[in-house]
Design brief:
Helices cover 47% and strands 14% of the residues. With 858 residues, the protein is an alpha/beta fold. The strands form five sheets. Strands 1, 2, 5, 6, 9, 10, 11, 12, 16 and 17 form a ten-stranded mixed β-sheet that branches. A six-stranded parallel β-sheet has the order 20-19-18-21-22-23, sandwiched between helices. α12 crosses α15 and α23 packs parallel to α24. It is globular, with a radius of gyration of 27 Å. The protein starts with 27 loop residues before the first helix and ends in an 11-residue tail after the last helix. Bound molecules: ligand 26Q. Ligand 26Q binds next to α7.
Length: 858
């Protein structure tokens, strides 16, 4: 977990060592150059005791002699040692929360992208140096030990990484919280690039065990699926509804510790694994039908087998719905179990529990909580509804129609028959409210219904269910929250404006500044004091006072250069491309998606290439473009864009005419570890989504904090980054949201933009002629048609403006002092994007939860 072990003993001794980067094969020299993060409070863990405990684990847990221990053995022994050190703190924390009868947040998320844990733990416990010494004695390198930890890929991108940053901040702010999710056996696929194309491989992340997790069989839950509903009148004269004869699935929780930074609080991340109630059917087995004897087990355990099963088939859809319900049902049962430890009056639930829905993936929680309260606990419908609304909050992360979840009614009827009834009843009560307010507006009723009645059959709109059942609905950046209010959920906003609010995303400074960028953290510590790279991030604004201090600007420049030098061997090894650290590093790393417009960046590279070929002596700032990101396995268009980047790289990198002024590399298998390695090396951060499409972005914040200047559109949190750093330190280009909408309304014709821009026309022609597909002009025919005829994300309309932004970037880079100033100001302004502040706002404005301080040894 992100802070799966940041401890109160923050950031080690004054000679705390090199922070390993963890993306893989940096050379030993590169790692040494990276330098150590700044010192914090002294450790309370005796290095001698740590050493002994590691050796004990090597012997008794790994069953290895010191002499034969591998890097991976050391990793396991150290991980177990760190975990042991957190047990007492975790127990004390949970006891303290219970005794205080504190309100607790349950953060429900289908993804948690935690990143590796050990390096941050060692750093925060002040044990980094001791660890380095120990492995050094065995002729091993600590970086190698840290890199032998798998980077768990239990998420696909921003939403999952946000959940991990939030868990870090919740613990650091001493807020009682549990993260609930799914313990997938297989995370997001491992991406390899073969012949320029993405190839997906299984991510068997648990193959060597996971020292951070603990199964908690005593908190196992039972979940029902399928079956049917029966109603009968009870002795009390009331109608009781029961859901009967379904299939049973067991949910086994696997817990890991989430330790706060500079506090003793340790929270829980609880991930559920699906288990069958029995291993095999004895009758079938005895009859010799071995396959059918285990069928049930296989079926049930598939529920937590893999992140995002493909849902283009009915079976795939069903599995995904079961996945969502499974983790929600287990988590809510756990929330209610916890409430019942101290209380019997259900109307007190909103004072004791807040449930946050991370997008619509856990939105079935609204219906499940109603079922538990009404059917199981006998609470009257209207009382239960009031409780549900007060307890639940919904965060929206997207405006794209295709990402808004809808489930066919027939599927619900089959898998969750009681929930469908409950949803109909919720809808009935809700639509009565709508009718009362707008008696003559039938089309509004259809628009707002939780049930969509389109041509393709009835569907349950999960965003509507979440909205109706939550007292708070938030977007994740100002612009996005406005679009949620004004467009996506406008009807709901008109009915219940008080529910809508904004919570701009943030990132944890512990992982993204202190650990990932130790050199810069050192400089910040020197200028502002030791705590500011890890805490009270808005204080970074004080860095602006050094904007004319040449010695500081020199340091900023040196740090960036060293960070760039660190990734040169990585790119050589993973991409077989030699890049020059003195060139301008322009980086776009994120999921590959049409709306994020990696294709625009690629067209821009081709245009710059054409300029060099036209006039080999032209003055041009040497540029290195780095891309990384995964495309969904079934997303052919995005995969085609990856291929084009690689083909363009192949042609340009080899062309002697370019004389190293343009280099392009696509680094495979983007994930948290790779992000930590490359973000600190960026001069320019590409955030080029079509305005109105990127809800927030969080990579954009990490880049700014690391001193990159953003070349970006006014979209998502870019808008707030630009305000924070000042317009002159942000390279803005492209249309604004109203222009995009006007152009769309007027009927967008990309061909007219291609006709108007000579440069764009030549770029598209060159692709069409097979220049980047080695004569095979059919390879990118679909890309060319896409651009000329459809271009749904208006790449052609923004192209000239993007190229002009590139010019400004190049000119700025040509003035090293001005560039260093911009870099410093970006770090200074980036300080407003700490997830600590985001979580403080959720806590006070949505959850009404208060910190509970944990005192050890009391
Ligand atoms: C939906 C339906 C069916 C199957 C899958 C999905 C699905 C799965 C994952 C839809 C969306 C997601 C993930 C979305 C995501 O990561 N969104 C990002 O969230 C970040 C955190 O708020 C934002 O910064 C990004 O702008 C947003 O794209």
């Amino acid at each position: 977990m992100d802070n799966l072990a940041t401890t109160s003993a923050a950031a080690g001794s004054s000679t705390t060592p090199v922070a390993a980067v963890g993306a893989g094969p940096l050379s030993a020299q590169a790692r040494e150059r990276r330098g150590s993060p700044p010192a914090g409070a002294p450790t309370r863990i005796d290095p001698g005791q740590f050493r002994k405990a590691v050796y004990d684990h090597l012997l008794y847990t790994c069953v290895k002699d010191r002499a034969e221990a591998t890097a991976h053995d050391f990793y396991r022994a150290m991980a177990h040692t760190v975990r042991d050190r957190l047990v007492q703190r975790w127990l004390t924390t949970q006891r303290t929360y219970l005794e205080a009868d504190a309100k607790r947040v349950s953060y429900l998320s289908s993804e948690f992208l935690t990143g590796r844990s050990l390096g941050l733990c060692l750093l925060n416990m002040g044990l980094y140096q001791e660890a380095e010494k120990m492995v050094g004695e065995r002729n091993l390198d600590l970086a190698e030990v840290l890199e032998s930890e798998v980077d768990p890929g239990l998420g696909n991108g921003g939403l999952g990484r946000l959940a991990a940053c939030f868990m870090d901040s919740l613990a650091t702010l001493e807020l009682p919280a549990v993260g609930y999710g799914i313990r997938y056996d297989y995370g997001i696929f491992e991406q390899r690039i073969e012949h320029g194309q993405q190839v997906e491989h299984r991510d068997n992340w648990l193959h060597a065990g996971n020292p951070w997790e603990m199964p908690r069989h005593e908190h196992q839950q039972t979940v029902k699926l399928y079956g049917h509903v029966e109603s009968h009148r009870g002795a009390d004269g009331k109608v009781h509804t029961v859901w009967v004869e379904g299939k049973t699935v067991l949910g086994v929780p696997y817990d890991s510790f989430i330790a706060g930074h500079e506090t003793d609080n340790v929270n829980t991340l609880r991930l559920w694994a699906a288990r069958a109630p029995y291993d095999f059917d004895l009758q079938l087995f005895n009859a010799g039908d071995y396959r059918r004897a285990v069928e049930e087990k296989v079926d049930v355990e598939n529920i937590s087998k893999v992140l995002y099963p493909p849902d283009h088939t009915d079976d795939g859809k069903e599995l995904r719905l079961k996945q969502q319900y499974f983790f929600v049902a287990c988590s809510l049962a756990d929330v209610l179990r916890h409430f019942k430890l101290r209380h019997t009056d259900w109307t007190l639930l909103p004072d004791k529990a807040a449930i946050q829905l991370n997008d619509t993936h856990p939105a079935i929680a609204v219906a499940e909580l109603m079922r538990l309260l009404v059917d199981q606990e006998g609470v009257e419908w209207s009382v239960a509804w009031e409780i549900t609304e007060k307890v639940c909050g919904y965060t929206n992360h997207t405006l794209l129609p295709e990402a808004l979840e809808k489930w066919p009614v027939w599927l619900f009827e089959r898998v969750l028959p009681r929930h469908l009834e409950i949803i109909y009843e919720i809808n009935y009560h809700f639509l009565r409210k709508v009718i009362t307010r707008w008696p003559d507006d039938l089309s509004r009723l259809a628009r707002m219904s939780i049930i969509e009645e389109g041509g393709g059959g009835k569907q349950v709109r999960m965003a509507h269910l979440a909205t109706v059942g939550s007292h708070s609905i938030n977007g994740v950046a100002k612009l996005h929250s406005d679009l949620v209010k004004d467009q996506l959920l406008h009807d709901f906003y008109e009915l219940m404006p008080e529910r809508f609010n904004n919570k701009t995303n943030g990132v944890t400074p512990r992982r993204w500044l202190l650990y990932a960028n130790p050199r810069l953290s050192h400089l910040i510590a020197e200028l502002l004091g030791p705590r500011f790279a890890a805490h009270e991030l808005p204080e970074l604004a004080r860095l602006k006072s050094y904007v004319d201090d040449d010695s500081v600007l020199d340091r900023v420049r040196d740090i960036k250069l060293e960070n760039k030098r660190d990734v040169v061997p990585l790119i050589a090894k993973l991409c077989n491309v030699k890049v020059d650290p003195s060139s301008m590093f322009i980086i776009q790393v994120k999921r590959i998606h049409e709306y994020k417009r990696q294709l625009l960046a690629t067209l821009g590279i081709i245009a710059q290439y054409i300029r060099l070929r036209d006039n080999p002596n032209i003055a041009m700032t040497p540029r290195t473009y780095l891309f990384a990101g995964k495309a969904a396995a079934g997303y052919a268009t995005a995969k085609q864009h990856i291929r084009l980047i690689n083909d363009v790289a192949e042609v340009i990198n080899r062309d002697p005419l370019v004389r190293d002024r343009l280099k392009v590399a696509f680094i495979p298998n983007y994930g948290v570890s790779l992000a930590q390695a490359v973000i600190p090396a960026a001069d320019v951060s590409l955030q080029i989504s079509l305005a109105g499409k990127e809800a927030s972005g969080t990579g954009n914040m990490k880049f700014a904090l690391s001193g990159a200047v953003t070349l970006g559109t006014n979209d998502g949190a870019n808008v707030e980054i630009r305000e924070a750093v000042g317009h002159e330190h942000f390279l803005l280009f492209g249309m604004e949201v109203p222009e995009v909408q006007a152009l769309y309304a007027a009927g967008y014709l990309p061909s007219s933009f291609i006709a108007r821009s000579q440069e764009l026309g030549r770029v598209v022609d060159l692709i069409e002629n097979g220049f980047f597909s080695f004569g095979d002009s059919s390879r990118y025919a679909s890309v060319v048609t896409y651009l000329r005829k459809y271009d749904p994300f208006m790449i052609c309309a923004d192209f000239d403006s993007y190229m002009e932004g590139q010019e400004r970037a190049g000119a700025l880079y040509g003035k090293p002092r001005a560039f260093a100033q911009t870099s410093l100001v970006n770090t200074a302004g980036g300080g407003v994007f700490s997830s600590d502040d985001t979580i403080a706002a959720y806590a006070s404005e949505i959850w009404n939860v208060k910190p509970v301080k944990v005192v050890l040894g009391g």
